[in-house]
Design brief:
The complex is a heterotrimer of chains A (398), B (264) and C (388). In chain A, 25% of the residues lie in helices and 26% in strands. In chain A, strands 11-15-10-5-8-9-16 form a 7-stranded parallel sheet, with helices on both faces. In chain A, strands 19-18-20-21-22 form a 5-stranded parallel sheet. Chain A has 3 domains: 2-58, Alpha-Beta Plaits (2-Layer Sandwich), CATH 3.30.70.20; 66-254, Rossmann fold (3-Layer(aba) Sandwich); 279-395, Rossmann fold, CATH 3.40.50.1220. Chain A contains 11 helices and 22 strands. Mean pLDDT of chain A is 89; it is low at 60-64. Chain A has helices spanning 14-18, 43-47, 85-101, 118-123, 142-156, 167-179, 293-303, 311-315, 346-349, 369-372, 381-395; strands spanning 2-4, 24-27, 30-33, 53-55, 72-75, 78-79, 82-83, 105-111, 128-133, 160-164, 184-188, 190-194, 199-206, 211-216, 223-227, 244-247, 259-266, 279-283, 306-309, 336-340, 357-362, 375-378. With 398 residues, chain A is of the alpha/beta class. Chain A is globular, with a radius of gyration of 25 Å. Helix content of chain B is 30%, strand content 28%. Chain B has one domain (2-216): Rossmann fold (3-Layer(aba) Sandwich). Chain B is of the alpha/beta class and 264 residues long. Chain B contains 7 helices and 15 strands. Chain B has helices at 36-52, 67-76, 94-108, 128-136, 191-199, 207-210, 245-259; strands spanning 2-6, 9-11, 17-19, 24-26, 32-34, 55-61, 80-84, 113-117, 140-149, 155-161, 165-172, 175-179, 204-205, 225-230, 239-240. Chain C is an alpha+beta fold. Chain C has 3 domains: 10-120, Butyryl-Coa Dehydrogenase, subunit A, domain 1, CATH 1.10.540.10; 124-231, Butyryl-CoA Dehydrogenase, subunit A, domain 2, CATH 2.40.110.10; 234-386, Butyryl-CoA Dehydrogenase, subunit A, domain 3 (Up-down Bundle). Helix content of chain C is 53%, strand content 15%. Chain C has 11 helices and 10 strands. The radius of gyration of chain C is 21 Å and the shape is globular. The chains are: A alpha/beta (398), B alpha/beta (264), C alpha+beta (388). Chains in contact: A-B, B-C. Chains A and B meet through helix 5, helix 6, strand 11, strand 13 and strand 14 of A and helix 3, helix 4, strand 9, strand 11 and strand 14 of B.
Chain lengths: 398, 264, 388
């Protein structure tokens, strides 16, 4: 409930002004709260110039305990025995944030046969590494990973936990946040520290990237965020760097789970996967026939990139649905995005508009894709791509 | 089978607009539609019910106008729609949202399957599904691309997509799943469905009806707070490369060289 | 900007919304391919069936909605916006089903209408023959009693959904000397002995609709397949066509609307001589005439359909013919003009209007040619004014 510190309150009326529910007003020069009407939104608390308003008994931890939470955790992810790129990007960012907070970075890695990754984590910026290595963790099961991480966090009390916004991260980290009854911000593209209160400023895209929101988690700990891959930059490794490696043995009761993994299949990826690729060549309706899509593959190979698809290309059966970029598919932000034969419907644009350089090739000069393109080529992809491939080959001396 | 599908009304991407000066969403004149992923979640629930029998209840937490979304779900075949609406639910982040949804689902009684779309296209967090599973004490699987039930009638057989490929998993109900658009093709409403939807009774449950604690719902029950928003301007240079196809390509390759893309 | 308000009820609006969605989401994406491959639109028929639309005109006790001519017009107008070949396939099932609804015994209705309402079985209507088009009385297919069977011999021509439908309402000659009372209607089912089909016809347009000969070679059907009474054949056919003709008018309106939409959209973005061509009066006048004629046709079709649905409506032949002839002549004109507005692009298969123009022609011909429609109207006027 909302409490007024009558010593501090000057009866200025700011709270009454900002309250959307008419739950607080000034009577006899002091603020009085109608607890039934008050929705605990906190707008008056933030707006009181004297700091005379305060919440008591809310969900989560009482406000006074926040200071006992210290340190930044970077939750690492290993796939096929290799640390995924976003883990390294995350470590670099964690390092910067830790410097501002005057604290350290702990990497947390769960899995099996992963102990050898510890030094790599340290080389990329971890001061400590918590390794949870157990056969039950060889495959990713949400409940187990979440229970172990939540248990560790509860014991160690980091003030910030960051993880990669990968398929895995976006699946189990929300479980962790709910178990810890704390706030989680998904898919951040920016992280910073607000000096005056050590709060993590979490910036993330919403509405398919058409809106950027900055979010804080003021009264709960840990402050949690998942980070979009391929946005932040990893540091060059320092192999001589030293750090502490702690092996954690998970308690048996945390290893229980109700999901059985029967099979894990790695599909033949056409180059790097979409969320990590620096270059993406997307095929749209303008290719007209399946055999022409080969041109997109060739170009992607030459540029060391991945092949993406619009919904039209997927519906036509030319490319698999996992390569579909857009509102109900994958969101990407590579350095170079080539929209070939793509008209630029809004459902596609929201999936790629964050790309650094966008090249559009379409024979319709009025296609909306040209509104978001850095460079536009008005022409037929069937004509332009072979020329482009030819010219690039020449430049590369092939 | 008792199936619950959670849906959300979101602004229609085709009509939504952004105020670059204020850095906010423009709310007037924007149509509200059912979140695209939720159609697939609902279709999965309807197919399960059509094959194995049972009931599909659709829930949404939102303002009173969200009733339209529930009627649409009924027109597609859902057996019942329930609206969770209360001024006090407003401003909820995913923590408060999962609390509210969980209170409602618990009120419905034992449930076999809870289905959600992978994410809402406004918030884009993909957090409600997994968080709700914790609240209900259920296991969950995200990114479901294929789904069937084994002969025992209670084991789910699932394909889960990730960056590199997929996993095949099994788990017994009760469980919660979040689904991808590639899972199925949602059906069109039927005329009988539309007529039923027009007459359907859609109860509205408020905080009192749910027995929800005021400190755990809405803005009050949210751990995160938005402190500012902005509308990014994308650096579209909109430079149309002129000339014949050969000339356009040469100009592009030049720019690629400058940007370092050709050092593969 | 104001649109004409036709004061639809909530349920009527539901029908419009649903059929519009089917047109946009299911028909338009595949219409060019269906036109090219000439394949029967089974998938779309399934979608339409799942949406309960086959039961629009069928009584509730057989699983339908007991709606009238007007609701049927609303539905086919929206479907036609997508493709009239697909729509004709749907509408033809009503053409074949109406005789059973109007003249069938309770037992026949119970046997056939539920499957028709659910879309489980499609229906076709067989009247036309090589020597009997406008002159329906010239049909030569015969039906002869043989014990407790009827035996049919002859050939029907150009039957929509021939070979794909499972239920056929057929009109055959039972007594050549009785003139207008000389024919009888029957229900023939796919699989009946002696019932076969000719090859599929290749047409100028309407390609997704299957058009075939029906061949009756000593076709034996049980006695209880007679529809109505002996000698009622032509009456059944005429009454059915009277009910169905406004629907053809509605199809014409939907088609013309689609053509107009393409033409206006194109004219707004096509720049010649430094400006969008819609700013040139020559095109504006064309488009204005197209739009006005469509609205006038729509108003006529709707009014006629509503009149037909009125309690105890009788002698609707003239009105029905008016709705059909006016709207279909309009659709031919409008689709031709649409191609003209699009110019060279209008002639190309990669744009949808050339198909619309090819498809439109049939509307002036089938379900009674527009010349016959004018006969009907003229003769009706003669009768009407005789009393005045």
């Amino acid at each position: 409930m909302l409490k007024v510190d009558t010593e501090k309150c000057t009866g200025c009326g700011e709270c009454e002004e900002v309250c959307a529910f008419e739950a607080i007003c000034v009577e006899d020069d002091v603020a009085v709260v109608d607890q039934d009407a008050c929705t605990l939104c906190g707008t008056c608390v933030d707006g009181c110039p004297e700091g005379a308003l305060e919440f008591h008994n809310e969900e989560g931890l009482p406000a006074t305990d926040l200071s006992s939470w210290r340190g930044i955790w970077a939750v690492a992810e290993c796939r096929g025995g290799v640390l995924v790129p976003v883990t390294l990007e995350l470590l670099a960012k964690s390092g910067r944030l830790a410097d501002k907070l005057g604290t350290d970075v702990t990497a947390v890695l769960m899995g099996h046969d992963i102990e050898s990754r510890a030094q790599e984590l340290i080389s990329h910026g971890a001061d400590r590494v918590l390794i949870v290595d157990h056969p039950e963790l060889a495959t990713f099961i949400d409940e187990v990973y979440a229970n172990i991480l939540a248990d560790l966090a509860w014991k160690e009390r980091p003030e910030i936990i960051l993880a990669g916004a990968t398929a895995m991260g976006r699946s189990y980290i929300p479980r962790v946040a709910t178990i810890l009854k704390t706030g989680l911000t998904a898919d951040c593209t920016g992280l910073d520290i607000r000096a005056e209160d050590r709060l993590l400023l979490q910036t993330r895209p919403a509405f398919g990237g058409n809106l950027l929101a900055t979010i804080v988690c003021p009264r709960h700990r840990p402050q949690m965020a998942t980070v979009r891959p391929n946005v932040m930059k990893a540091d060059a490794p320092d192999p001589g760097r030293k750090g502490e490696v702690i092996r954690v043995v998970p308690e048996e009761n945390l290893l229980g789970h109700r999901v059985r993994i029967l099979e894990s299949v790695k599909e033949h990826a056409e180059g790097p996967n979409l969320s990590e690729a620096d270059v993406i060549v997307t095929a749209g309706r303008g290719f007209e026939q399946e055999k022409n899509v080969e041109l997109a593959r060739e170009l992607a190979d030459l540029l060391g990139g991945a092949v993406g698809a619009t919904r039209a290309a997927v519906d036509a059966g030319w490319l698999s649905r996992r390569t579909q970029i857009g509102q109900t598919g994958v969101t990407v932000s590579p350095k170079l995005y080539m929209a070939c034969g793509v008209s630029g419907a809004i459902q596609h644009i929201v999936g790629m508009q964050g790309s650094e350089i966008i090249v559009a090739i379409n024979k319709d000069a009025g296609a909306p894709i040209f509104d978001v393109a850095t460079y536009g080529l008005v022409g037929d992809v069937k004509e332009i791509l072979p020329l482009l491939i030819q010219n690039i080959r020449k430049e590369q001396g092939l | 089978m008792n199936i619950v599908v959670c849906i959300k009304q979101v602004p229609d991407a085709k009509t939504v607009r952004f105020d670059t000066e204020k850095g906010t969403l423009v709310r007037e004149g924007v149509e509200a539609v059912i979140n695209p992923f939720d159609f697939h979640a609902l279709e999965a629930g309807l197919q399960m019910r059509d094959t194995y029998g049972g009931k599909v209840t659709v829930l949404t937490m939102g303002p009173l106008q969200a009733e339209n979304a529930l009627r649409e779900a009924v027109s597609l075949g859902a057996d019942k729609g329930i609206l969770l609406s209360d001024r006090a639910f407003a401003g909820a982040d995913t923590l408060a949202t999962t609390y509210t949804l969980a209170m409602a689902i618990k009120k419905l009684g034992p449930v076999d399957l809870v289905l959600c779309g992978k994410q809402a296209i406004d918030g884009d967090t993909a957090q409600v599904g997994p968080g709700l599973a914790v609240r209900l004490g259920l296991p969950h699987v995200t990114c479901v691309n294929a789904l069937s039930v084994l002969d025992d009638g209670k084991t789910l057989h699932i394909m889960r997509i990730n960056e590199d490929g997929y996993d095949i998993l099994e788990l017994e109900m009760p469980a919660l799943l979040t689904v991808l658009a590639s899972l199925n093709t949602p059906r069109l409403p039927s005329l009988k469905g539309k007529m039923r939807a027009g007459k359907a009774d859609i109860p509205v449950w408020d905080a009192g009806e749910l027995g929800a604690e005021p400190g755990r719902i809405g803005l009050a029950g949210s751990a995160t707070r938005v402190i500012s928003t902005s509308v990014p301007t994308f650096k579209a240079r909109r430079e149309i490369l002129e000339g014949s196809a050969e000339e356009q390509v040469k100009a592009l390759v030049f720019r690629f060289k400058e940007a370092g893309f050709l050092n593969a | 900007m104001a649109q004409v308000n036709y004061f639809l009820t909530e349920e009527q609006q539901m029908i419009v919304d649903l059929t519009r969605r089917i047109a946009v989401e299911k028909i338009i994406p595949v219409r060019a391919k269906l036109d090219e491959t000439e394949e029967f639109p089974w998938e779309i028929m399934k979608d339409i069936a799942r949406s309960d639309l086959f039961g629009l005109y069928i009584p509730e006790e057989y699983g339908g909605f007991a709606k009238g001519c007007f609701e049927n017009c609303l539905a086919v107008e929206q479907l036609a916006y997508g493709c009239i070949a697909v729509t004709t396939t749907f509408a033809a099932s009503a053409l074949g089903g109406y005789p059973i609804l109007l003249f069938g015994t309770d037992e026949q209705k119970a046997r056939y209408l539920p499957d028709i309402a659910s879309g489980k079985r499609l229906v076709a209507f067989g009247l036309t023959e090589a020597n009997a088009g406008s002159d329906a009385a010239g049909i030569r297919t015969t039906a002869v009693e043989d014990g407790d069977h009827w035996v049919l011999n002859g050939t029907k021509q150009w039957i929509t959904s021939g070979g794909e439908a499972e239920i056929y309402t057929i009109v055959a000659m039972t007594d050549k000397n009785k003139g207008a009372r000389g024919a009888t209607a029957y229900i023939v089912e796919k699989g009946d002995p002696g019932f076969g089909y000719g090859k599929k016809e290749r047409k100028m347009g309407l390609n997704a609709s299957s058009t075939r000969e029906l061949i009756f070679n000593g076709c034996r059907i049980p006695k209880d397949r007679i529809l109505g009474r002996k000698g009622q054949g032509f009456i059944i056919a005429m009454r059915t066509l009277d009910l169905a003709r406004p629907g053809i008018g509605a199809i014409a309106v939907g088609l013309a609307q689609a053509a107009l939409d393409e033409a206006v959209r194109y004219a707004r973005q096509r720049i010649q001589f430094g400006q969008p061509i819609i700013t040139f009066q020559a095109l504006q006048h064309m488009l204005a005439d197209m739009a006005t004629k469509i609205e006038a046709s729509r108003a006529l079709v709707y009014s006629v359909a509503r009149t037909i649905d009125e309690e105890g409506a009788k002698d609707v032949a003239k009105l029905s013919a008016m709705a059909k002839v006016f709207a279909t002549d309009m659709a031919m004109q409008v689709t031709t003009d649409a191609v003209q507005v699009l110019g060279g692009y209008g002639y190309m298969k990669s744009y949808p209007v050339e198909k619309m123009m090819r498809d439109a022609k049939i509307l002036q011909i089938y379900e009674g040619t527009n010349q016959i429609m004018r006969n009907i109207i003229g003769q009706a006027l003669n009768k009407e004014y005789a009393k005045k």
